# Entry
Amino acid sequence: MTYSEQCAIVTREIYEKFDASHDFDHILRVLQNAHEIMEGMDGVNRTVVELAVYLHDVDDPKYAEVTDASAAAILKELAVPQDVAEYVLAAIESVSFSGGNSKEINSLEGAVVRDADRLDAIGAIGIARTFAYGGAKGRKLYDPTESIRSGMSEHDYRAKKTASVTHFHEKLFLLKDLMITERGKQLAEVRHQFMKQFIRQMEIETGQSLSPQ
# Structure
């Protein structure tokens, strides 16, 4: 059994404790995105990418209360060679948006994993995940009186319980222009336009502008 296959078994049990926005189905979609992005790319270590995908949400602060697992500990448990484990952890560090304060990408693997994860944050699936997470956390659907924040610290980004539609303006609509890989950029454009149309339709149905101030 490969390291990736072993990691899938271990992480499935962890992600089953998360809500639908970050469950194991999310991991499988990111893995599918990663495989599509890697098609035709040279010099990418697929094992590093796959392990990083499986582990990238294990340490997510949003779910600290439901798991005490860590990516580093799992890699050690699976006896992944130290040099491979270091590449995996470096790729994971580059994934988080954190209010726009992303870590610098220093590898092809990190670029693939970040783009693959961000693709799952936009488009039809991104919309579903946003409202699934908002519902799990008791957030309003929309609130046009909220201000759009930018240049936030990671603490400020996570601290305020903004409405789900506000999240589109603070993060989701920004992701298209933050893609790194060529394939990621192509896929993001289609998903971005779908989200814009969705918000326009919400404005028609509510009879008001849903763009925060």
Observations:
- Residues 182-206 form the longest helix (25 residues).
- The chain has a mean pLDDT of 91.
- Residues 3-206 form a domain with the Hypothetical protein af1432 fold (CATH 1.10.3210.50).
